[in-house]
Amino acid sequence: MRRILYNLFLILLASPLAAFSLDDAEQSILKGKAAEVIPLLEGYSPKTETETLRRMWILGVAYNRSGKSHQAVAPLARLVILRPDDPTFRLELANALVKSDQIERARYHLELAKGAGLSPSVQAKVQAELDRLAKPKKWQGYFRFAIVPESNAARRTSAETVNLSGFVLRLDPNSRAQSATAFEIGTGVATVPRLTDALRARFALDLDARLFDGRAPDEVTLRTSASLLHFANEGRLVSAEIYGSQRWIDDAAYAHTYGLGLSYTRNLGTRARATAVLQRERITYDGSGVGVNRTAGAAQFAYAASSQLVFRVGLRAESRTSSYSPVAGHAAGVTIGGDYSFAGGLRVGLDLSFDRNEFDGVHPIFGVARVDKKLSVMLNLSNQNWSYKGFTQVLRLGFEEQRSTISINRFRNATASIGLTRSF
Question: Which burial class, exposed, middle or buried, applies to 161 when counting CB atoms under 10 A from its CB (0-12, 13-18, 19+)?
């Protein structure tokens, strides 16, 4: 038995893992053999804090150099948390994030690295990368689909009766709240030709569809747009857009829209970003011919508290005018939320929204002015390190409740969305 144990000990001493060192790993990466050392690095047990940090660094670089950038994010992000003052770690993490299409996180780390005392040549390369990321690709596209069960897909009242001037009417069961499951699909393509070094045009076509199982109306929206985009220093982007859309409900034309949009975005230091949007549009309801002129504005402020945590707040307001007063009115809303990216790739987003919508005039049937107040919460979960043939999974869980002075406009709805998305 002793002889057997002794032979096993000699075999272990002769194994690659026993002879493996972090110096060997670095040399292998320099020789273009990064993929070969990854299993050895994953099985390596550091003996000191310095070795722990060095192993994380070499493992992240090995993943990056072997085309596994999604897997490089976790060790490099952990390294940046432990040593936030070292720009080398941050720049390698930004490189992995760019390769794994996590552009916003990459931009954040590049901005922080700029203020870390880089040499002039490295500083110039970082700024050039930031400028490149700010400008879109010549062709863009996306495709997504999801299964979406909802407790009240058509946003209908759960009340069984309504009171009309003292007369109590019983609602048809098919016009009340009921659950339904949708198959959602969205796709779009855009071309972004270069006009000058700072100016781009953008022409886009988008299709969104929500197809239900017969217990709620199907919805399809087709949108086309043409834009001009102007890029400047400090992450500034000014855009002007003209657009048009057509919406169908259960295969019948429901409404068409055309309008103009203006937006302005800029960085506020290295951690914050602000966006302002203005819209003016004309909505025409195809069945009745009623038209609505809508003017809307929105502003959003986002702040990166760390490389993993982002807070945001948004405000919005709109005014509607129409010859048919029950659809005219004004609305305002606020959203507060944030995202947290865990070292392992899990990303969690939470948003809480409140909207108040007031309509002009008196409702022709219920005899009162309509005022809606809606509260909603949405939880988003995704894993930035998991993908299948370029598709990333997204899980959304949400709840919304609307109170209204009109009883049939009160509703509650819980929703879950399980889907895949891909950008190219």
Answer: exposed
Domain coordinates in residue numbering, the chain: 17-134, 139-423
- Mean predicted confidence (pLDDT) in 365-384: 89
Q: What is the reported pLDDT for 17? A: 46
69 near 102, Cβ under 8 Å? no
Tell me the fold of 139-423.
Answer: Porin (2.40.160)
Q: What is the mean pLDDT of the chain?
A: 86
Residues 309-353: pLDDT tens digits?
889 999 999 999 999 888 999 999 999 999 987 766 688 999 999
Does residue 366 have a pLDDT over 50? Answer: yes
The full 3-state SS of 303-348, as one line of letters, equals: EECCCCEEEEEEEEEEEEECCCHHHCEEEEEEEEEEEEECCCCEEE
d(CA 262, CA 296): 11
Burial class (CB in 10 A: 0-12, 13-18, 19+), 191: middle
Instruction: Give pTM, 2 decimals.
Output: 0.77
Decide yes or no: CATH 1.25.40.10 for domain 17-134.
Answer: yes
Residue found by looking up tokens 């996306």 in the block: 142
